[in-house]
Predict the 3D structure of the following.
Amino acid sequence: MSAHAAPAVPPGRHARAGRGRPSLLVQDRRLGYLLVAPVLIVLIAVTGYPLIYNLWNSFHHVDYLAPPIGGFAGLSNYAELFTGHSFLPALLHTVGFTVVSVALETGIGLALALALNKPFRGRGIVRAAIFIPWAVPTVVSAELWRTMFDPQSGFVNYILTELHLPLASTTWLDGTWTAWTALLIADAWRNTPFMAIVLLAGLQIIPDDIYQAAKIDGANAWQTFRRLTLPLLKPALMVALIFRTLSSFLIFDVVYIMTSGGPGTSTQVLSYIDYQAFLFDLDFGYGGAIAIALVAMALLIAAVYVRTFRIEEPA
Amino acid sequence: MSAIGRKAGFFLLLAIFVLVSLFPFYWIVITSLKSNAVLARGTTSLLPSQITFSNYADDLTKQDFVRPLLNSAIVCLTATLLTVIIASMAGYALARTRIKGRPLILGFILIAGFFPILALVGPLFIAYRHLHLLDTYPALILSFLIYTLPLATWLLSSYFSQIPRELEEAAIVDGTTRMQALRKVIIPVALPGVFTAAILSFILAWNDFTFSLSFMTTPSMYTAPLAIVDLGQSQYQTFYNLIDAAVVIISIPIALLVIFAQRRIVTGLTAGSFR
């Protein structure tokens, strides 16, 4: 290894490799691999291994409630995705939820970031206040909005009644569309701050003199936003969109706690049915097929964004 | 005149944002202070009446919420400590040594960070069962590293690469070995970055619900977020006052972290993103 590595040394920077002693470059590399090994071992153990295990399971009968286990199943687990009753509706729910929640959170998050980008007194406190919902656990946001939407002890129906608005006697989590509304609000409340923080960081690296120049050229606020801010915000927007789209697509905790996929199966999402396949039905073959589908779609989403925005790899 | 109007509109908008962020917290706090009798009357006012702290006392005694809190603290702090050690080593190696395949390694770590959590649950469940790790801390600690390591490694690698190389070289010229230089010069300078990584890792670990739900089957091993979901449920009624008292309790450490380390969290969260 050392003999091949030697020519890569920049001239004059390193001592020559001695007879018995490895060169500084080799020592440096050895140290590097040693230090980077633990993170790779852990991450491969908790992602690579389950991925391969899922792949194997998905082509076999691994249903602990219907032994025997381990026979070759061909594509039957994947066929069940399309012939069964749970996967396609869950896919539709998940895609719909992802599109609506990401659009909503991007719109509000952008407005929030633009507002917070202006200097004003107490900006730090305002930023902390807006940021807290992201930092608290998902369980907090789910239980909190379950309380808020409760017909009896909640806030939502109380305020609708006081203001004589419609829907004041809705049992939110018992209807399909009202349950989705509650889930959407709980999700947006917790995640819009993240969107805003990432976009704000993107806004803050745009140099001020560009805006001065635009002002001198007589550009109005909309033109400045459209032609300057938005294009320069592209990298931040991509980072925020990838993060949010994927985590929205993989939503689980909020659904499990607020609706358990109900009423009926009307708020079941992909992660939820995968959880059910694994830990209720103990069918690791079908669960594995859903898992592989999830991984493939997550990769597809990331690839589409990277393609659309055409950002170079981070150095 | 219109400038004043715009300024008023701006502050009105901000006020709405702050209100929407914080009002739900106010609501769970006042709900947590209601007695069962007050709760049963339904919502009659936006202000609390007849405040009682009995739900907090109840959670911490009768409802055995202390044990889950302790479980969460042990698991999250251990995962945070491990993350900081492993990610500092890797971050240094990626920023400061000439290992081959650096973009590949960083790319893999990034992708691992986006991995669908639910896709991991089945295989890990089987593996932990074989290893007799279900219902144990190590199962959760190892699983939590998937939340924490990708962000922490990216963050620390970008942090280490900002430390001037001369600092380390000067120490080595002065006759210290590389490991000594690392321990005495680099780590002290990198401490703020390590601290940021620790705070973010703790927040991400504290957030877990999925892994506890999947790998912890006896109530005494539940983490706090999981225990909350079982709390205050009876056949006929949901006791939101008990639930919300527990929700307030688990939000407190996080709220304190955000208030005291807001700037650090925000820069840490965005540092890895644009480099």
